[in-house]
Design goal:
The chain is globular and about 85 Å long. It has 17 helices and 18 strands. By secondary structure, it is of the alpha+beta class.
């Protein structure tokens, strides 16, 4: 029933797909292939409807339509186009962007007439879409590179398609024209498809008759309201001459619609207690951050709990509902930073494997602090943490002052200890020059508090955890996990994901000798300074960098040790949807993927622009991020081999064993 909107290779003999997996990017219950990660940057999900999709030649509308002969599924409406998610997992999810539509969405009336939305009134029984191109996603029921398919008109020979990353859509048009020229059909195809290869590739608005169209019948709703919404969005996506509007203009035009659907009353049926009293007079609008996607919710505080209610924007049915957080079960409340704005708040309920966390972003610092003030009145001491170390470390003056104060405290302590032991002045001075890492935790905490780097609650917690670690009360893994949290890092934010260091340096031996010093990385140096030849080359480069007014300040390292791209580089097999979104609809080049632990370590050690540290998954969990358990098509290497599981060091038996040995 999808007809010409499927590539020829997919019209028959379709393989049985694997069912989509669960995780950060999918909800519970029946597997849903649609997620917010399929949206472009700045695109918003506005709702979904049960529908039946049928593709027919335009001249056959409505004569060629028969109720019940289409493909059943869900129609998702977004600010940039429409998605169709078929029930059959063998069929891909389709996206039709407004900028690729040849004309505004029309209506099919009960009388069998195809009319514009303005003439439909309440007579619309189905939607009629006509597009120059449709994008295929989630092919074979699992994440895969998007495929842009040029939709042919009747009489054209086949469908021109191009996978994302394999070339520009213009190249696909040229290839199609070359194919048709060889058969003498090029001129007819251009006329029927409305394409002009000498100008922009999208065709101008044209009559429906004689062109391929998609007819969408809604199962349990009238087509009148969706028709009006789609017409409004189509107008926002096009300039006066019919070409795509500028992104800023589109964002401005859709902003009011998003805000309108985001706002709303709080649903009191979500309250868990009959006597609960609301604290806020109206819901606060917040973002719920989930990896590379963001959901828009309404937050309400009662005198017993924090509630998150999904709004009418960016909340598809396949996503799990956000949890509520009774104050009595909160174990941590962290202030967080989002895109350099101190508007984030992370709530943690429970501990260990049963912990539930959510990362919120308020509209302003004032709104975030209002939430903090209300929560602080209702949770025990030690639950609410102050600003993280990362927030204040970015302010150079407090950073220098804290370092100086801590060094001075260390010097005084060392000098006093030396004098008491009868040491010479030179020996005392040498002891006073000890590194900051050797400063006792209580002195460091005192120095940081003096310059306003730490509030009292976080300072006490840092000192307590440091002492526990020194005394063997908590493991190094637990301590590093806490330090990441105290530094403002969260597993819910790929931009500030927890950082764990490379500890081992031997990924080639048949047997790992943990008693050999050579098996370990030198943790006294940053990752970029481990190779003497590389650091020498970088320092030489700094000497030749231009400096002065108007010039960028000279720098030693050109890249960071943790970025969203690095996180998804390591976790591509576990979170492919996020990787594809970050790569604009495709997987990265196969030879640049995470292929081998040993090869990645060698690159980090020697490459002039590779300084990435590891993620928590290397030291916890079962190692599933190292397996291609979903059978993803990650591409072919230059040697012709398919990318599969990550190659592990010889000294481990399995991904689970690898993580255990790394943790050990």
């Amino acid at each position: 029933p999808l007809g010409r909107w499927l590539p020829p290779s997919r019209r028959k003999g379709r393989p049985r797909p694997r069912r989509a997996g669960s995780g950060m990017y999918s909800g519970g219950g029946k597997a849903s292939r649609f997620s917010l990660d399929l949206l472009d940057e700045g695109e918003h999900h506005l709702g979904e409807l049960q529908a039946e999709w049928q593709t027919v030649p335009g001249k056959s509308v409505p004569d060629g339509l028969k109720s019940g002969s289409g493909n059943s599924g869900k129609l998702h409406l977004t600010t940039a186009g429409v998605f169709f998610e078929p029930e059959r997992l063998a069929d891909p999810v389709l996206k039709v962007a407004f900028v690729h539509m040849r004309r505004p969405v029309a209506a099919l009336t009960d009388a069998g007439e195809v009319v514009d939305h303005a003439e439909a009134g309440g007579r619309a029984s189905a939607l009629v879409l006509q597009a120059a191109m449709v994008t295929h996603m989630m092919a074979h029921g699992r994440p895969s590179p998007y495929r842009d398919v040029i939709v042919d008109a009747p009489g054209a020979a086949g469908t021109a398609g191009v996978a994302r990353g394999s070339g520009d859509i213009r190249k696909a048009v040229k290839a199609k024209l070359q194919e048709l020229r060889e058969t003498g059909m090029a001129a007819g195809w251009l006329r029927s498809a409305g394409l002009d290869a000498s100008k922009q590739w999208w065709p101008p608005a044209a009559p429906l008759r004689g062109r391929t169209a998609a007819v969408v019948r809604l199962a349990h709703a009238s087509a009148t309201e969706p028709l009006a919404l789609l017409a409004r969005l189509f107008s926002a996506a096009h300039a006066a001459d019919g070409s795509p509007a500028a992104p800023d203009a589109v964002a401005t035009a859709t902003q009011a619609l998003v805000a309108e659907r985001w706002r709303g009353e709080f649903d009191r049926s979500l309250l868990s207690g009959f006597s609960e009293r609301l604290v806020l007079t109206e819901p606060m609008l917040v973002l719920v951050v989930e990896g590379t996607s963001v959901r828009r919710c309404r937050l309400m505080l009662s005198d017993a709990a924090i509630y998150l209610q999904p709004s009418g924007v960016d909340n598809p049915s396949g996503a799990a509902p956000p949890p509520s957080f009774p104050y009595s079960r909160l174990t941590r409340v962290w202030r967080r930073r989002r895109f350099m704005r101190e508007t984030g708040l992370e709530l943690v309920s429970g501990s260990g494997q049963s912990a539930v966390a959510v990362l919120l972003e308020a509209g302003s610092v004032g709104e975030r602090e209002q939430l903090v003030a209300e929560i602080a009145q209702r949770v025990p001491d030690g639950v609410l943490m102050g600003e993280s170390l990362l927030f204040r470390a970015g302010r150079r003056a407090p950073h220098d002052a804290a370092t100086g104060a801590a060094a001075a405290a260390a010097g005084e302590a060392a000098a006093a200890a030396g004098a008491a032991a009868g040491a010479s002045a030179a020996e005392s001075a040498s002891a006073a020059a000890a590194s900051l890492a050797d400063v006792p935790s209580q002195l460091l905490s005192q120095a940081l508090r003096q310059v306003g780097w730490l509030d009292e609650a976080l300072a006490r917690t840092v000192v307590s955890r440091c002492r526990q670690w020194q005394e063997g009360g908590i493991s190094t893994h637990e301590y590093l996990t806490f330090l990441n949290a105290a530094a403002g890092r969260s597993r819910l934010d790929l931009g500030q994901y927890p950082v764990f260091p490379w500890v081992l340096a031997d990924y080639a031996s048949e047997k790992l000798d943990l008693k050999a010093p050579a098996a370990f990385r030198d943790l006294s140096k940053p990752i970029g300074a481990l190779s003497p030849s590389r650091i020498a080359s970088l320092r030489e480069r700094v000497k030749h960098m231009p400096a002065g007014e108007g010039e960028e300040a000279p720098f030693l390292y050109g890249t960071h040790y943790s970025t969203p791209g690095y996180v998804l580089y390591f976790r591509v097999r576990e979170l492919p949807e996020g990787h594809i979104r970050l790569q604009s609809g495709k997987f990265d080049n196969a030879d640049r993927m995470f292929l081998s632990v040993a090869a990645t370590w060698e690159g980090v050690l020697n490459h002039s622009a590779d300084f990435k540290e590891l993620t928590p998954e290397f030291y916890s969990g079962d190692g599933r991020f190292l397996r291609n358990s979903r059978g993803l098509d990650l591409g072919l290497l230059q040697a012709g081999e398919s990318v599969g599981d990550v190659e592990l060091p010889p000294w481990c038996r399995s991904p689970r064993d690898f993580v255990r040995r790394m943790r050990e």
